[in-house]
Specification:
Blueprint (H helix, E strand, L loop, with lengths): L10 E3 H8 L3 H10 L5 E3 L2 E5 H11 L6
Antiparallel strand pairs: 1-3, 2-3
């Protein structure tokens, strides 16, 4: 059995989240500090759940994100 398959991510690093949102890393950190973007912390690593990106976009768009 071939074990080579892609597992879709459930969390992004801050840098990956910034690319996904088409924002700068600094802007994403501002959203995190303000509480507008939910994250989790594992040791020193800050991770952004992919679901949090959708929540942010929906909130930022007034709730009518497609």
């Amino acid at each position: 059995m071939d074990e080579k398959y892609e597992v879709p991510p459930v969390v992004y690093t801050v840098e990956e989240a910034a690319r996904a949102l088409r924002m700068s890393r600094d802007r994403v950190y501002e959203l995190i500090r303000s509480g507008r973007l939910r994250t989790l912390k594992e040791g020193r690593l800050r991770l952004v759940p992919i679901s949090a990106l959708g929540e942010y976009v929906e909130t930022a768009s007034g709730g009518d994100a497609a």
